[in-house]
Write a structure and sequence with these properties.
CATH topology: Metal Binding Protein, Guanine Nucleotide Exchange Factor, Chain A
Number of strands: 11
Strand content: 35-45%
Bound molecules: zinc ion
Distance between the termini: 39 Å
Largest sheet: 8 strands, mixed
CATH architecture: Beta Complex
Helix content: under 10%
Structural class: mainly beta
Strand order of the largest sheet: 6-7-8-9-4-3-10-11
Length: 140
Amino acid sequence: MSSNNQHGPGLRRTASCGCQRLRLTVSGEPRRVYLCACSECRRATGSAFAYRAIFTENAIIAIEGESSVWRRGSDAGRWIEQVFCPGCGGLVFMRAEAMPGAISISVGSFTDPGFPPPAASHNRSHRPDWYRLADTVAED
Ligand SMILES: [Zn+2]
Ligand SMILES: [Zn+2]
């Protein structure tokens, strides 16, 4: 596999927190990319919605640096763990009881403007009406 390869299974991306001490490297393309505007995602990101990518755990090449975990409940009463840097507080990824064998990575942590776009936007009713999504993004 050429090191210049930009797509396919040879692709590697590293997500990191603001201080770059917590770093998560994954291979291949995400299983699913989505936006979520629920209250918890807005609080977790401090923004109008979360932009996240789901990778299977076997796509993880390395997790480097210290991390802290905050476990909360979901609307469906199941646990969600937010994994963040204890130094700068950056939320790099999440695990969820409802999503065994997979992790959900904060796409912003990749700082990759070419990252695949979201296929879906969840919790539309929580979303402000001042932004518009592309027609390719399914809404619920
Ligand atoms: Zn950090
Ligand atoms: Zn959400």
